[in-house]
Amino acid sequence: MPTFNVKLKDDFDTAVKRVTEALQKEKFGILNEIHVNSVLKKKLGIDMPHYLILSACSPSLAHRLISQHPDIGALFPCNVLLREEADGSTTVTFMDPAKVFGLTNNPEITPIAEEAKAQMLRVRDALQ
Protein backbone atom coordinates (compact mmCIF):
# COMPACT_ATOMS: atom_id res chain seq x y z
CA MET A 1 0.00 0.00 0.00
CA PRO A 2 1.18 3.57 -0.59
CA THR A 3 1.54 4.31 3.12
CA PHE A 4 4.02 4.59 5.98
CA ASN A 5 3.31 4.32 9.69
CA VAL A 6 4.43 4.57 13.27
CA LYS A 7 3.24 2.73 16.37
CA LEU A 8 2.77 4.91 19.44
CA LYS A 9 2.62 3.77 23.05
CA ASP A 10 0.03 6.50 23.58
CA ASP A 11 -3.61 5.72 24.28
CA PHE A 12 -5.95 6.63 21.45
CA ASP A 13 -7.09 10.06 22.68
CA THR A 14 -3.54 11.18 23.43
CA ALA A 15 -2.40 9.96 20.02
CA VAL A 16 -5.17 11.92 18.26
CA LYS A 17 -4.10 15.09 20.07
CA ARG A 18 -0.40 14.57 19.28
CA VAL A 19 -1.04 13.75 15.61
CA THR A 20 -3.31 16.78 15.17
CA GLU A 21 -0.73 19.09 16.75
CA ALA A 22 2.10 17.64 14.63
CA LEU A 23 0.03 18.09 11.46
CA GLN A 24 -0.71 21.70 12.41
CA LYS A 25 3.02 22.40 12.84
CA GLU A 26 3.48 21.31 9.22
CA LYS A 27 0.61 23.60 8.11
CA PHE A 28 -1.94 20.81 7.63
CA GLY A 29 -5.49 21.41 8.76
CA ILE A 30 -8.07 18.72 9.44
CA LEU A 31 -10.96 18.96 6.97
CA ASN A 32 -12.88 16.00 8.31
CA GLU A 33 -12.78 13.24 10.91
CA ILE A 34 -14.32 9.90 10.02
CA HIS A 35 -14.91 7.71 13.06
CA VAL A 36 -15.22 4.41 11.20
CA ASN A 37 -15.85 2.43 14.39
CA SER A 38 -18.84 4.67 15.22
CA VAL A 39 -20.25 4.33 11.71
CA LEU A 40 -19.98 0.54 11.81
CA LYS A 41 -21.60 0.46 15.25
CA LYS A 42 -24.50 2.64 14.13
CA LYS A 43 -25.09 1.03 10.72
CA LEU A 44 -24.18 -2.61 11.39
CA GLY A 45 -24.17 -3.01 15.16
CA ILE A 46 -20.49 -4.00 15.03
CA ASP A 47 -18.18 -3.12 17.92
CA MET A 48 -14.55 -2.48 17.11
CA PRO A 49 -11.64 -0.51 18.58
CA HIS A 50 -11.19 3.15 17.69
CA TYR A 51 -10.52 3.60 13.96
CA LEU A 52 -10.26 7.26 12.93
CA ILE A 53 -9.44 8.73 9.53
CA LEU A 54 -8.23 12.34 9.62
CA SER A 55 -8.57 14.13 6.28
CA ALA A 56 -5.57 16.46 6.33
CA CYS A 57 -4.92 19.27 3.86
CA SER A 58 -2.24 21.88 3.34
CA PRO A 59 -3.95 24.78 1.54
CA SER A 60 -0.72 26.02 -0.07
CA LEU A 61 0.18 22.55 -1.38
CA ALA A 62 -3.39 21.98 -2.56
CA HIS A 63 -3.36 25.24 -4.51
CA ARG A 64 -0.05 24.42 -6.18
CA LEU A 65 -1.20 20.90 -7.08
CA ILE A 66 -4.52 22.10 -8.51
CA SER A 67 -2.68 24.74 -10.55
CA GLN A 68 -0.67 21.96 -12.21
CA HIS A 69 -3.45 19.41 -12.61
CA PRO A 70 -7.06 20.61 -12.12
CA ASP A 71 -8.43 17.07 -11.61
CA ILE A 72 -5.95 16.16 -8.86
CA GLY A 73 -8.55 17.06 -6.24
CA ALA A 74 -10.01 13.59 -6.79
CA LEU A 75 -6.90 12.32 -4.96
CA PHE A 76 -7.25 14.75 -2.04
CA PRO A 77 -6.92 14.90 0.93
CA CYS A 78 -3.88 13.37 2.60
CA ASN A 79 -5.49 10.82 4.90
CA VAL A 80 -4.03 9.86 8.25
CA LEU A 81 -5.42 6.76 9.97
CA LEU A 82 -5.30 6.23 13.73
CA ARG A 83 -6.05 2.69 14.83
CA GLU A 84 -6.38 1.55 18.44
CA GLU A 85 -4.50 -1.69 19.10
CA ALA A 86 -5.48 -4.48 21.54
CA ASP A 87 -2.56 -3.57 23.83
CA GLY A 88 -3.80 0.02 24.20
CA SER A 89 -1.25 1.51 21.83
CA THR A 90 -2.14 3.39 18.65
CA THR A 91 -0.89 2.79 15.12
CA VAL A 92 -0.77 5.88 12.91
CA THR A 93 -0.73 5.27 9.15
CA PHE A 94 -0.05 8.06 6.67
CA MET A 95 -0.99 8.15 3.01
CA ASP A 96 2.16 8.55 0.88
CA PRO A 97 1.40 11.70 -1.15
CA ALA A 98 4.26 11.08 -3.58
CA LYS A 99 2.88 7.69 -4.59
CA VAL A 100 -0.77 8.74 -4.69
CA PHE A 101 -0.23 12.02 -6.56
CA GLY A 102 2.26 10.20 -8.79
CA LEU A 103 -0.77 8.47 -10.35
CA THR A 104 -1.15 11.62 -12.46
CA ASN A 105 2.08 10.81 -14.35
CA ASN A 106 2.62 14.58 -14.49
CA PRO A 107 6.29 15.49 -13.95
CA GLU A 108 5.31 18.96 -12.72
CA ILE A 109 3.43 17.33 -9.84
CA THR A 110 6.42 15.27 -8.66
CA PRO A 111 8.31 17.97 -6.71
CA ILE A 112 5.14 19.17 -4.99
CA ALA A 113 4.15 15.60 -4.11
CA GLU A 114 7.65 14.93 -2.75
CA GLU A 115 7.36 18.08 -0.62
CA ALA A 116 4.03 16.84 0.77
CA LYS A 117 5.61 13.47 1.52
CA ALA A 118 8.52 15.16 3.32
CA GLN A 119 6.04 17.08 5.48
CA MET A 120 4.14 13.90 6.36
CA LEU A 121 7.40 12.14 7.19
CA ARG A 122 8.30 15.03 9.52
CA VAL A 123 4.92 14.58 11.21
CA ARG A 124 5.62 10.86 11.64
CA ASP A 125 9.12 11.53 12.93
CA ALA A 126 7.86 14.13 15.42
CA LEU A 127 5.65 11.46 16.96
CA GLN A 128 8.48 8.98 17.60
Q: What topology does this entry show?
A:
Elements: E1 3-8, H1 12-25, E2 29-35, H2 36-44, E3 51-57, H3 59-68, E4 78-84, E5 90-95, H4 97-101, H5 110-127
Antiparallel strand pairs: 1-5, 2-3, 3-4, 4-5
Number of strands: 5
Q: Proportion of β residues?
A: 25-35%
Tally of separate helices: 5
Task: Give the rounded overall mean pLDDT.
Answer: 96
Give the structure's gist in a few sentences.
The protein has 128 residues and is an alpha+beta fold. It contains 5 helices and 5 strands.
Could you please describe the fold and organization of this structure?
- By secondary structure, the chain is α+β, with helices and mostly antiparallel strands.
- It has one domain (3-124): TATA-Binding Protein.
- The protein is built from 5 helices and 5 strands; from the N terminus they run E-H-E-H-E-H-E-E-H-H.
- The protein is globular.
- It comes from Candidatus Thiomargarita nelsonii.
- This is DUF302 domain-containing protein.
Main attributes?
TATA-Binding Protein, alpha+beta, 128 residues, five-stranded antiparallel sheet
